[in-house]
Amino acid sequence: MEGDLSVIPLTEVLELVHAHRRSGALEVRVGVLPLALRFAAGEVVGASILDWEGLEALFTFPLHPKEGTFRFQGGPPTQEKPLMPFPTLLGEWARVNDEWDRFRTLIDSPSRVLEAIRSKPPLEVFQGGKSVRAAAKAWGVPLLIAMERAYMGVREGDLYPLRRYAWHALRIRYQGRKGKTLEEFGQLQALLDGTRNLGEVIAQGVPEPLVRRYLVQALASGEVSPPGRGWLLRDLTWEMEREGA
Fold first, then answer.
1. Single pTM value for the model
2. How far is residue 55's CA from residue 16's CA, in Å, rounded to a whole number?
3. Which end is more exposed in the chain, N or C (fewer Cβ atoms within 10 Å of the end residue's Cβ)?
4. Which of 172, 173, 121 shows the shortest CA–CA distance to 149?
5. Strands (E), the chain
6. pLDDT per position as a tens digit, 78-117
7. Residue 107 CB coordination number (10 Å)
8. pLDDT digits (tens, 9 = 90+) for 113-151
9. What is the 3-state secondary structure (H, E, C) of 102-136?
10. Phi and psi of 187, rounded to 5°?
């Protein structure tokens, strides 16, 4: 079973697999963003965006995309436990999607680095500049909770978004792999030698949107595959949405 999400909405695809108690893998792609779901007897037992797995990854994926593609491949049922009962999962997915939309009115992605203007608990973690993802790790809380705290901090004037992102620290060495990506971004090729991070590449005059577009295509194609490439691709696509707004 496969098709276009502009014809059959994602929610209907999910309901169909659930209603018929199907087992197997559902692959969904919206733009360059991929989602892989595993079903057992109609229940979702696994979800991932590349190497980012679990409900946290799932709930960042758009539940009501206007376009995209899907493909379901049946398979034998497994003994894995559902991530959540199906009706609950759909409800939480919709709710958390709405929360992300709200938080992103002030913070384009969890990779955005924020600075504490007024050091008050628990926002002192942002002193010196820290991304929301790094703050979540420091606090030991889910990413959504960290994003809510950061959103409130920005809204109340306690935090200020800096003009940099966590991915600026990445060092990428182009290995000369065959592909068309760098033909479109030729000015980057000489700079991607592993001696400088992406922030330094940007500081040398390469426009940040160009670096971001390159990184998205390279991650989506598998040309580069750093640890955390799933959440990185999600953050970058969020940032590109803001650029196009």
1. 0.92
2. 20
3. C
4. 121
5. 2-4, 24-30, 33-40, 43-49, 52-53, 69-74, 112-116, 130-131, 159-165
6. 899 999 999 999 999 999 999 999 999 999 999 999 999 9
7. 22
8. 999 998 789 999 999 999 999 999 999 999 999 999 999
9. HHCCCCCCCCEEEEECCCCCCHHHHCCCEEHHHHH
10. -70, -15
Task: Tell whether the torsion through CA atoms of 105, 108, 110 and 112 is positive or negative.
Answer: negative
> What's the CA gap between 223 and 177, in Å, rounded?
7
Q: Which residues, 6+ apart, have CB-to-CB distance to 209 below 8 Å?
A: 240, 243
Beta-carbon contacts of 134 under 8 Å, excluding residues fewer than 6 positions away, are 166
Q: Which residues are within 8 A (CB) of 175 and not within 5 positions of it... i.e. 6 or more apart?
A: none
CA distances from 82 to 2, 48, 78 (A): 23, 14, 11
Locate 123 and state its tokens. Answer: 């926002």
CA geometry: angle at 79 spanning 78 and 82, to 5°? 95
Of the CA atoms within 13 Å of residue 194, those in its CB half-sphere come to 5
